[in-house]
Write a structure and sequence with these properties.
alpha+beta, four-stranded antiparallel sheet, 9 helices, elongated
Length: 300
């Protein structure tokens, strides 16, 4: 073991420039890959809250509402609410109907804006009764919309997907570009690790040949090279994890979350998952190129 560690640190010193290049490349590529992982989790969070749960929202009239379906100065009556519910529940395209009163909407509003000063300016009476509708086929919403948007007591019918679809499209594109760029950099890092180990093994080819002839095991011969590449890769992963931690603390928690409170943001649990993935990728990228680069020197 002492010989293995001695050879490992000796190799790191001899190839210091190449090792630093590997560390920096791994740092940048793993950071981009980690951002891609966090982006995927962020999209899933938003979809879980807004996209997969609700397709259509029917807003009912209030005393302040204006529109041909609303009676001036009067909330939607119970009879009108019952008629809208009956129309929705009898529609073959509707899977589930959720009704929320003003008080229930206000409670949800309080949860979303619990850290905002706007909460003090709003009351339950300022909210609207509404129906949230889950469709059997999210693409088939026009029939439901046309069936209720002209009914008495209905102020508006909102298709949430028309607002979220462009957002998710851009987020998915940004995520794909980030992961694609990181994949290219990870490939470059793997090739760089392979070249560094190949050069180190070539400089010690006679010593390796003698070790093989005297009966040294393949693992004993490869161990210093495996440790050398593993240390460089883990150093890059450690720096990438620090980058993700800084992103979470200073950008997401420090800036984005206080500014946009209607969106659920990734938390430290999601960051830890991304960090674990980065470490696993770093280990794989350090081992495979090393095994390939040293394979020819294990033959007698």
């Amino acid at each position: 073991m002492r010989h293995t560690l001695s050879e490992t640190f000796s190799g790191l010193r001899r190839n210091l420039t190449s090792t630093l290049a590997v560390v920096v490349t791994m740092w940048v590529s793993l950071s981009l890959f980690g951002i891609g992982v966090l982006s995927a989790q962020q999209v899933d969070l938003i979809k879980g809250r807004w996209y997969d749960r609700i397709e259509l929202t029917v807003f009912l009239c209030t005393a302040a509402s204006q529109g041909q379906n609303c009676d001036p100065g009067q909330d939607a009556t119970q009879a009108q609410k019952d008629a809208v519910r009956a129309a929705l529940e009898s529609n073959d395209e509707v899977q589930t109907v959720f009704y929320q009163s003003k008080d229930q909407v206000y409670e949800e509003f309080r949860e979303v804006y619990k850290d905002s000063s706007i909460l003090g300016t709003m009351r339950a009476s300022d909210m609207q009764d509404l129906f949230r509708i889950k469709l059997k086929n999210p693409e088939e919403y026009q029939g439901v919309r046309s069936a209720v948007e002209g009914m008495p007591g209905v102020q508006a019918v909102q298709d949430l997907r028309q607002y979220l679809e462009p957002l998710f499209g851009w987020m998915n594109l940004a995520q794909a570009l980030t992961v694609g760029a990181s994949a290219l950099l990870l490939l470059a890092a793997a090739l760089q690790i392979g070249n560094t180990i190949r050069m180190a093994a070539f400089s010690r080819r006679r010593e390796l040949g003698i070790m093989r002839l005297v009966g040294a095991s393949n693992f004993y011969i490869m161990a210093p090279f495996l440790l050398e590449s593993l240390i460089a890769a883990l150093a890059g992963a450690l720096l990438a994890n620090g980058t993700l931690a800084a992103l979470e603390q200073f950008v997401i928690l420090g800036k984005a979350k206080p500014s946009i409170q209607t969106v659920p943001w990734v938390d430290w649990n999601h960051v830890v998952i991304a960090m674990v993935v980065l470490v696993a990728v770093a280990v794989v990228l350090s081992i495979i190129p090393t095994l390939i680069a040293t394979r020819r020197y294990l033959k007698v």
